[in-house]
Amino acid sequence: MTSSVIIPLCKVLIREFENINKLRDFCTVFTKVLVEELEVYNENEFLQMGMLLDVRFKGDFAEEKWKELLIEKLIKSAEESNLQEDTKPDDSVKCLRDNPFHRFMREKRSETQQKTKRTQHEIIRAEVQIWFNEACESEANPADYWERATSREKFPNLYRLQQEYLHTPAAAPETVGDLPPNRTATSANRGLVDAEDFSKFLFLQENIRLTGLGLEFHPTLFTL
Q1: CB atoms within 10 A of CB 111
Q2: Whole-model pTM?
Q3: Which of 22, 28, 122, 159 is the most buried (most CB within 10 A)?
């Protein structure tokens, strides 16, 4: 689990609880607190960038300003590192480029780029546009996705940036259950919720603390 899931999970939970008719008082309180937390998360650059670079979410949960910031970061990173499209690829990408079918398609794309004489900024914007235009892979493992040679070759600039934002754990397993009984989701009343919802509660509990945003736990939210 990566930190990129925090904002999408909050938004999904808010919508789900708004549509639940049972236990309305609890749902109302839970939703109110979660909305307040989400306002903080929405201004967290680290969480936003990770979400945009996650193949499961991409731009579906983000505002346009964060997409533009992503492009700015890609351009800045390329300029600082003096990285061009012909940067030496790793061994797996080299093998991919030796494939005659792939080589044919790559050369065709290169011909198109030469005809249009695109600048590096335009190349980066085009890469990001393709990224957002392609459908999300909701069941994919983002780490596995970026390990694919095809992904690294197709989105070289995004690949470099995701190494900075995407591979941070969202929760540390060793901390689960360490909180006092009145501040943990693992209370005696946890049997009131099913396994899926309990997992979500526990995930939120641990991540609100681990984000380092100085947020305090709300007893109504985390005492089930």
Answers
A1: 10
A2: 0.63
A3: 159
- Read out DSSP for 99-131? SHHHHHHHHHHHHHHHHHT--HHHHHHHHHHHH
Q: For the chain, what are the domain ranges?
A: 5-84+116-167, 181-223
What single letter denotes the amino acid at residue 158?
Answer: L
Tell me which residue of 133, 146, 123, 130 sits closest to 50, measured CA to CA. Answer: 146
Give pLDDT tens digits for 108-121.
Answer: 666 655 545 578 88
- Alpha carbon 223 to its chain's center: 28
Q: How far is CA 222 from the centre of its chain?
A: 24
**Helical packing angle, 156-165 and 120-133, nearest 10°:** 70
Q: Which residue has the tokens 């709300």?
A: 218
Contacts of 108 (CB under 8 A, 6+ apart): none
Cα–Cα distance for residue pair 5/151, rounded to 1 Å: 20
Q: Nearest 10 degrees: CA dihedral of 158, 164, 167, 171?
A: -140
Tens digits of residue pLDDT in 151-168: 998 999 999 899 888 865
pLDDT band at 3 (very low <50, low <70, confident <90, very high): confident
Helix then strand then coil, in percent of the chain rounded to 5, is: 70, 0, 30
Separation of alpha carbons 219 and 30, rounded Å = 10
**Would you say 4 and 191 are in contact if contact means Cβ atoms under 8 Å apart?**
no
